[in-house]
Each structure stands twice: as structure tokens, then as C-alpha cells.
Amino acid sequence: MVWVHNPEAARWDGDPARGAWYEDKATDPDLAEKILCQTLRLTSGQKTDAECWAALFGHFNRTHGRGAAGYKPGEKVAVKLNLNCAQRKVDPTDGPYNTPQMTLALLRQLVKQAGVRQDDIVLCDGSRWVNDTVFAPCHAEFPDVRFEDLEGGQGRFQVRPDMDAALHFGDPRTPENGKTYLPACLTGATYLINAAVLKGHSLAGVTLCAKNLFGSVDRENSRPRRAQKC
């Protein structure tokens, strides 16, 4: 585990009347890229970004019985975003979710440094919406990267359940027992990047990586009854 902190990266004063936290003037895109780069190098012990990703993919494959191999074209890389406070319509008063700056920095790393094909990448949150603050800049630069969210539409795809991956809880009386599924975009991925957001939570106390995966399930009673649009 590594911790990288730069107080100059986020300069929002908390007043949406003077701009939103997700704008470049509030969250520095250059510093976001530098923070991610530093994190990768501290984590892997490598000197270049490309070497970092080769080490990370290689370590995952070795420890999961896949041999001494890195990413191969055709293998899917899923990025679980935390868009819990995002709405379909952009609102500057929305609470924090994944910043567009760090999300774009991650895509640049995956495509340009790790060599992952755009169409092998999916960014998703099955319980919320990928609004334009995140989608627009990422899609403009990487049009073949796939985005999946609660409803789909406007260039996004609706998350679909893997009906062969039902979740059965320890207490069978739990609501939606056996009717809760993992999304197909995750079960079909070789690699998962848990892009969590560190923030407070009214029920859980704090949101970290485990809480982020709450948005990785699909329940029959909460699924929008509408045709997919894209």
C-alpha cells in the first residue's frame, strides 16, 4: 500500500456559485497525472510507467495461476468507478465522485503506457449514472472505451446482469437472495481496477474500496425497465 498526497491538486473552496469541484480550475489535471504516476512507481518499484504496468499485470497473472504473462489484446480491463453522488443531469452541488481529471489520467495510462486497447476497457457503475463531467472528456479522447451505468443512453451502455452469477446470502431470508447478480462487464473481465473514492458515509462511516463494490451488483427489483440506448 502506498499513500500519495498533494494539497495543491484540489483547490475548490466549497462554493458551487464560483464553480464546481470537478472543473479543471478546481482539480488540477496535470497534478492528477503526476499523482497517479508517482503512485504506480511507488507501488511497483519500477522507473517508467510502461514498466509499472508490466509489473502489475505480471504480478496479477503469476498470483492467479495465469503464468508469467502480461496483458494480452482481447483481455478485458474493468474499472469500477464510485459514482454514488452523480446524477444523469450535471449539478455543481453534487457530492464527490471520481474526478474527471483522475479518470482521464487513468485511461491515458492504460492506453498509452500499458498498451491496453481502448475496446478492451470498460468503466462502470451499475447503481448510478456516468454523467457528462466524466463521460464527455474521456469519450472525446478515447471514443472506443466503453461506459456502462444504470440506464445507458447518450453513448453509455446499460449494465447487464450475468444470470449465471447470482449471489446467495448467508441468511436466505435476505431480500433479493438469489436475485442479485454480478454485472456481465465484471464477470467477463480479466482484470478489475477498483477506483474507489475516499469520503465519509452516513451509514458506513467511511467509503473505501469494499464499499465501492456495492455498485457492482444488479438487483431485479432495482433494474430500470427500459430498452438499452447508446
- The residue ranges in which pLDDT falls below 50 over 5 or more consecutive positions are 225-230
Write down the secondary-structure element order: HHEHEHEEEEHEEEHE
How many runs of DSSP E, i.e. beta strands?
10
Helix/strand-derived class?
alpha/beta
Major β-sheet profile: 5 strands, parallel
Average pLDDT score: 92
Helical content band: 25-40%
DSSP strand (E) fraction? 15-25%
How many alpha or pi helices?
6
Return Rg in Å: 18 Å
Overall shape: globular
Q: Termini separation (Å)?
A: 38 Å
The spatial strand order of the largest sheet comes to: 4-3-2-1-7
Keywords:
3-stranded antiparallel beta sheet; alpha/beta; disordered C terminus; 5-stranded parallel beta sheet; globular; single chain; 230 residues
Condensed summary:
The chain is an alpha/beta fold. It has 6 helices and 10 strands.
Task: Walk me through this protein's architecture.
The chain is an alpha/beta fold and 230 residues long. The protein has helices spanning 29-44, 49-63, 100-113, 132-141, 184-187, 209-212; strands at 77-80, 121-124, 146-149, 157-158, 161-167, 180-183, 191-194, 199-201, 205-207, 218-219. The strands form 3 sheets. Strands 4-3-2-1-7 form a 5-stranded parallel beta sheet, with no helix packed on it. It has a 3-stranded antiparallel beta sheet with strand order 5-6-10. A two-stranded antiparallel ribbon has the order 8-9. Helix 3 (100-113) links the parallel strand 1 (77-80) and strand 2. The N and C termini lie far apart (38 Å). Mean pLDDT is 92; it is low at 225-230.
